[in-house]
Design brief:
75% of the residues lie in helices and 0% in strands. It has helices spanning 5-19, 23-29, 38-50, 57-88. The longest helix is centred in the last third of the chain and has 32 residues, at 57-88.
Amino acid sequence: MPKNPQMLERIISAADQGYGDGLVLQSYKNPRRFCGDTLAKFVAIELKETFDSDLSPAEQVAEAVRAMSVARTDIENVIGALGKLAKEV
């Protein structure tokens, strides 16, 4: 359990609000239960795994933003590759 679980829960709750359907928070609270949305589960796992309780709250939020930005870049690259494939077929 992280040293500052309240900050991790605030980060997860903020992400859940942005995701909009409650599944990020559900995935965080029940990690062994499949919520039906693998992206929501990914967000919860990624935020939990990148959380560093040795950082200040501002640094923790910045790290969460960084982690989600990396994920966004990866997803955009996948979309681009699929778009190229769509033009080929």
